[in-house]
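Final report, closing paragraph on structural work. Over the funding period we assembled a curated collection of sequence-structure pairs, and we close with a single example.
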Amino acid sequence: MDALFKLARDYGEPCTVYFEEGSEGSFASAFIEPLMDRRSTRIWREMTELGEIPGMRYIYVGPPDLPLKAGSRIVTADRDYEVIWAESYKMKNKTTHWEAVLRLREVPV
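Its predicted structure, as stored:
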């Protein structure tokens, strides 16, 4: 996994992670990509009573030393995300990385 995070430093998305609202942010370099529908190459969509609407979700893969939880916030240069699900992955009782599903936060105008 160390090789993955060396790649993230060079090619990942620089971001600031806020574990909870009001906490001090921590800098990270992580991979944040659109989450695709498993059955096809379509972007994830949500169904409502009025039909299908874009419900863009993103997958985050980040370093082991920055824990996340639902409600955590991730800010990049041009986007503000909210974590809706997060989980750490371990090998031999050592956290290797964090994965999360994100959605764009609505920022008041």
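The first strand starts at residue 13 and ends at 18. The mean pLDDT is 81. We thank the funder for supporting this effort.
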